[in-house]
Design brief:
The protein is built from nine helices and five strands. It is α+β, with helices and mostly antiparallel strands.
Length: 210
């Protein structure tokens, strides 16, 4: 049965949760459905549809955080610094979850866009694709995070985007640019710590009306 939580109800629910268990209150098919619908319906500049999501569930998620990223970080930092800064302990914390969503941007989608809009328009807007890709990827990340929260899953967002070993391990195209990893699982213990808020009206929200 589909969740009926509204967007306005899901917004305050979405918070970073790090104490996760390797289980899910919903079947894998539901997680797949959520990711599918988000890829299908999230907006993008000129409808370029360049966002990509790679879902790693169960053992594949464990492989990411127990094998692939540790190996990449050891190579990046060196064994001595890796051990001294206790990176293994930190990465083991993410491995306790149930799944990870890897967010990418596909450059070939932008090439298709330039061909579609014509050289005159492409000449005006080419060069903004990295910024616009960040915009649409952020929307995809937020949408999936909120959707998972509404289904009873907790999540946190990570940015190990400089490690080529991640894409290599799952045969992702070398050209695709990684934007983030969303770690998720069933929350353990209390749901979450309460968040504090800076003032909104007049500082972070400015309204002009006549």
């Amino acid at each position: 049965m589909a969740n009926t939580t509204t967007l306005s109800e899901s917004l305050p629910m979405r918070k970073s949760i790090y104490a996760l268990s390797p289980s899910s209150p919903v079947p894998d098919s539901r997680i797949h459905e959520l990711a599918h619908d988000i890829i299908l319906h999230c907006p993008s500049s000129f409808n370029v549809q360049s966002a990509r999501i790679v879902l790693l569930l169960g053992a594949e998620h464990q492989k990411l955080w127990k094998e692939v990223i540790p190996a990449g970080m050891r190579k990046h930092l060196g064994d001595e610094k890796y051990e001294a800064e206790n990176w293994q302990g930190k990465l083991d914390g993410y491995a306790t979850g149930y799944g990870s969503a890897l967010f990418y941007d596909a450059p070939e989608a932008w090439d298709e866009l330039w061909a579609r809009v014509g050289e005159k328009m492409a000449g005006l807007v080419r060069g903004f694709e990295s910024e616009w890709a960040d915009h649409t990827s952020g929307m995809h990340q937020f949408a999936l995070w909120s959707a998972l929260e509404a289904e009873g899953l907790g999540a946190n967002l990570q940015h190990y985007t400089w490690l080529p070993q991640i894409s290599e391990a799952w045969g992702v195209k070398k050209e695709w640019k990684m934007r983030a990893q969303l770690v998720f699982g069933k929350p353990e213990g209390g749901r979450r710590q309460e968040r504090t808020y800076k003032p909104v009206d007049g500082e972070r929200l400015i309204v002009h009306q006549s």
